[in-house]
């Protein structure tokens, strides 16, 4: 497909706040190899990952993923803020996320977290835990309506349980990873969320799937 066709296929709907999650998984459901998602990657997956950033207003990610994956500030012509969720105050100002970026990150936390001073826009959403509905509303209030959720599994699971995920872009890597890796969503047991398959692309042996929550429009 051409770049223009891909952009049209993966575009966010206009005039509303929309959360799209982006994950890669092995055929047997592993979300990482040796602790990192990079072991599951491919050129096609990287293309969709970068496209997700190009089309969004903000990247939403958990602090654990920032630390494990070594997140830096997003680089593109239009500045893209990265919003990091932390309830435990595990972020420090010397992380590349803060020192290597073209736009200050957003830190979403709760009142009980013991955060050090950070060069960031800090959002307090909740008392002892992060209230993700408040977090999404605060992002929307800043004009950040197209939210690109990049992980990790616990944040994704909590977002799903809160009814906040509208769509999922899932790359299926042609690997059997076995091991003890987490699944893409982890958290409390909830009734299954019904999805509709929006599109399927194939790049060699890699499948690129787009799902949408059935009651999202």
Identify the notable features of this structure and list them briefly:
217 residues; alpha/beta; 9 strands
Description:
- The chain is 23% helix and 26% strand.
- It has 6 helices and 9 strands; from the N terminus they run αβαβαβαββαβαβββ.
Question: Within the largest sheet, what's the order of strands?
Answer: 5-4-3-2-6-1-7-9-8
SS-derived structural category: alpha/beta
What integer is the average pLDDT? 90
Poorly predicted regions = none
Helix and strand run: HEHEHEHEEHEHEEE
Write the layout of secondary structure elements.
Blueprint: H1 3-9, E1 18-26, H2 43-55, E2 58-62, H3 63-69, E3 82-85, H4 96-99, E4 106-109, E5 121-124, H5 132-141, E6 146-151, H6 153-161, E7 167-173, E8 195-203, E9 206-213
Parallel strand pairs: 1-6, 1-7, 2-3, 2-6, 3-4, 4-5
Antiparallel strand pairs: 7-9, 8-9
Concise structural overview:
Helices cover 23% and strands 26% of the residues. It is of the alpha/beta class and 217 residues long.
């Amino acid at each position: 497909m051409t770049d223009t066709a891909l952009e049209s296929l993966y575009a966010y709907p206009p005039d509303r706040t929309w959360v799209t999650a982006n994950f890669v998984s092995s055929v047997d459901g592993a979300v990482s190899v040796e602790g990192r998602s990079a072991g599951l990657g491919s050129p096609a997956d990287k293309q969709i990952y970068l496209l997700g950033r190009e089309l969004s207003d903000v990247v939403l990610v958990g602090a654990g993923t920032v630390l494990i994956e070594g997140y830096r500030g997003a680089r593109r012509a239009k500045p893209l803020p990265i919003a990091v969720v932390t309830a435990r105050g595990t972020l420090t100002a010397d992380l590349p996320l803060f020192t290597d970026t073209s736009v200050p990150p957003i830190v979403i936390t709760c009142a009980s977290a013991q955060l050090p001073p950070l060069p960031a826009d800090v959002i307090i959403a909740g008392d002892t835990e992060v209230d993700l509905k408040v977090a999404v509303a605060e992002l929307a209030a800043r004009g950040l309506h197209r939210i690109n959720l990049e992980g990790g599994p616990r944040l994704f699971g909590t977002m799903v349980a809160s009814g906040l995920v509208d769509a999922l872009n899932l790359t299926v890597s042609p690997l059997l990873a076995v091991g003890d890796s987490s699944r893409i969503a982890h958290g409390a047991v909830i009734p299954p969320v019904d999805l509709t398959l929006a599109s399927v692309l194939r790049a060699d042996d890699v499948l690129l799937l787009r799902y949408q929550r059935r009651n999202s429009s």
